[in-house]
Each structure stands twice: as structure tokens, then as C-alpha cells.
Amino acid sequence: MNFTLKVWRQKDRHSQGRFVTYQARNVNPNMSFLEMLDVVNNELVLKGEEPIAFDHDCREGICGMCSLVINGEPHGPEDRVTTCQTYMRSFRDGDTITIEPYRARAFPVIRDLITDRSGLDRIIAAGGYISANVGAAPDANAIPIPKPVADLAFDAAACIGCGACVAACKNGSAMLFLAAKATHLNILPQGKPEKHRRVLAMLQAHDAAGFGACSNTTACEAVCPKGISTEYISRFNRDHLLAQISQALHPTWFQ
Ligand code: SF4
Ligand code: FES
Q1: Taking the model in full, what pTM does it have?
Q2: Nearest residue to 101 (alpha-carbon basis) of 209, 170, 23, 17
Q3: Which atom of ligand 1 is closest in space to residue 160's alpha carbon?
Q4: Helix (H, G, I), strand (E, B), or coil: what is residue 100?
Q5: 65 CB within 6 A, ligand 2
Q6: Which listed residue, of 4, 25, 40, 203, carries a Cα 20 to 30 Å from 189's Cα?
């Protein structure tokens, strides 16, 4: 297969970016999208040109590092699939493919297709954990948890922190990520004692990192490679209201 690639090249966050056209020739349809970029980069290096910088790590759909907007869609054309698990057979021979970094105020470009997504880490650092030492892993049935609750927590925990939800949102909001990470802990018994504090701190870190408010368009859910539901945003909003009431009634608990 042969493709024309229009790739965003940008030296750093302060430089002007632009699209540069490359040809990807003799691409095996079973190559992943990132393997195809590896081949293009090899050719650039052999020609003495700067390779295209892009983020990746596991290449197994687990880590959330791969972060490309392909033909206008975060993670490309396949539903519930990360960029690294997108294969070239998803495109037609001869296609022109546009490749851009995630576009969001809170994700400044570091170089080419790599953005700084540390704002997501700061949300986790604000409360996405249980601070008590819970010791070794208990027996599976030591703390009874109803199956529907365990299933909900498991679905929320599937978020890989890729940031595609932010790139798809017209307000650059990370509410789907935040809601998944907070709800995963909020609905389990181990996470409940710190629930109110967690919700308030994580939302504060979200706003401080420059993410916008939820746009209510559900564009985030449409592009999420893990199928995280916007139902978690509704749950988070309810938890946030309860946290605000609790803080108003018991301000000393939050000092
Ligand atoms: S909610 Fe989905 S799109 Fe957003 S960071 Fe998590 S896995 Fe990625
Ligand atoms: S490189 Fe890890 S999810 Fe794509």
C-alpha cells in the first residue's frame, strides 16, 4: 500500500508549526500505524533529515502514550482502538492521511506530534489514590462488594489516561478522564473515606492545569479507546455537589 502523509512538524512549543508532506511506500497492510511511521522515520534518518517525533510506549493499547489525531480523529478511524493498535489495513491504498498532535490549551506541543500531557498527572496527584496503607492484597472476598459496583469500578479503571477525550472536546475538558479516575475509587469501600476531599481536590487540579469545562457534547465518549461512558461524568457531578454540601456543613473536616 502507498500513502501520502501530511504530518504536523513543530520544533518546540514556541515555534510556528506546519504540515509537511511525506510519501509512505510499500506499506504492509498488517503494519501498525506507528510501525508505518517507524519506516518513514528510517528513511528520513538515512537521508540525514530529522525524524518525526511522536509518543509511544507499550504499543499494546495499555499505556495511553500514543496520542495522534489522524484525519481529524484522536486515535484515528477505528472505534475503541488506540493509535498503536490501528493497522494500515484500516485505510485505502493511495489515501492521503493527515497526522496532527492533540490540540488543547492544556496540552502544549513539545515537538512535532508530542504534547505535554502532565496536566493529567497533576489531577491524579491531587487525589487519584487511597492514602491509607491498605497492606498486602486481601483475599478476594474479604470485603464484600456487590457485582454491579465491582463492574462499574472496573469499567472506570479501564481509562488509560491517553487524553483523547481532551483532544476531542471543544472546550479541551478532561472531565471524562477525571470522572473515570475519581469514580473508580469513590464507589469502592476502600475509596469512600476520602471521597469528598478527592472530588474537590481533583477538580481543582483539573481547572488549575488549564482544562476547560465539560462541553456536554459527548465527543469524549465517541473517541475514547476504552469506551468510558459519560455516565461517569454525571456520577462525578453528583459526587461534587455532595462534597460541596459536606464542606459547607463541616468546613473543619476539609482543613
Ligand atoms: S477517558 Fe478514555 S479518552 Fe479519556 S484519557 Fe481515559 S481512556 Fe483516554
Ligand atoms: S503506545 Fe501504549 S497505548 Fe498506544
Answers
A1: 0.94
A2: 17
A3: 7
A4: strand
A5: yes
A6: 203
User: In whole angstroms, what is the distance from residue 217 CA to residue 224 CA?
Assistant: 13
Q: Is the CB of 58 under 6 A from ligand 2?
A: yes
Among protein residues, the one with the nearest Cα to ligand 2's atom 3 is 61
| Interior angle at CA 171, CA 168 and CA 177, nearest 5 | 60
83-96 burial, b if ≥16 CB within 10 A, otherwise e?
A: bbbbbbeebeeeee
Which ligand lies nearest the alpha carbon of 159?
1
Q: What angle do CA 88, 97, 212 make, to 5 degrees?
A: 105
Please give the DSSP secondary-structure letter assigned to residue 32: B
The series of mean pLDDT values per 10 residues for the chain, 255 residues long, is: 98 96 97 98 97 97 97 97 98 98 97 98 96 78 89 97 98 98 95 96 98 97 98 98 96 87
Q: Give the other-Cβ count within 10 Å of 57's Cβ.
A: 11
Question: How remote is the CA of residue 192 from the centroid of ligand 2, in Å?
Answer: 31
Range list of β-strands (E), 10-106: 18-24, 68-70, 73-74, 96-101
Contacts of 216 (CB under 8 A, 6+ apart): none
Shortest-distance Cα residue to atom 7 of ligand 1: 159
Cβ of 61 less than 6 Å from ligand 2: yes
> Which cell numbers in the block locate residue 120?
493529567
Compute the distance from residue 55 Cα to the ligand 2 centre, in Å.
9
Q: Output the CA 227–ligand 2 centroid distance in Å.
A: 16
- Nearest residue to 123 via CA among 206, 200, 183: 206
